[in-house]
Write a structure and sequence with these properties.
The chain is mainly alpha-helical and 184 residues long. It has two domains: 33 residues, no CATH class; 141 residues, no CATH class. A three-stranded parallel β-sheet has the order 1-2-5. The protein has a two-stranded antiparallel ribbon with strand order 3-4. β1, α4 and β2 form a beta-alpha-beta unit. α5 runs antiparallel to α6. The longest helix has 16 residues.
Amino acid sequence: MPMALTLIEAIAGRPKAEEIARGLGLQSWDARHASDTFRFNRPFAITAMQNLGAFWNWEKFGIELAAGVDEVSLALVADSWSRTYRSRAVTFAPTKNPVTTQSGLRVVPDVVAANWPIETLVSRFDRRRPAIALDDTLRAIGRRYGSETENFVATQLEYPQAAQFANHMNRTSAAPDELSLLYR
């Protein structure tokens, strides 16, 4: 998200980028990108292999489509669950009719169903801003599959909050100036 906001700032100016950041639920952002945080490393590869190898435990999560849903939150939540390599998120609604989102997009549900099994139903995120919905989803992934998978997904998304902490924890040594980058 920080890089997207940097692009918005370049195109539409700082005030517009700050307005969008507030709408997303981000308190602060800038153009700095700690690329090393999101590198392919051993813990990332091991998590990918373990999750792919657990194909017998693969799950399908349902996200209920409701009129007025925030489409950015919907996309972030569905994408995050689908990046675990252990699950896939699908949308569902009682009919195959398109559901209109907050900004007027019409989304056709993946599955027609009146309800979804509670154990794989993604909790509602209607009132949460996208960044908060993403944070909550990453924590839910961590509770379900462990912190390694939570960090695996955050790294794929280049989402700094969880991924930077995970990268810090996976290092055997780090220079003090490298550690300061993690906590800005």
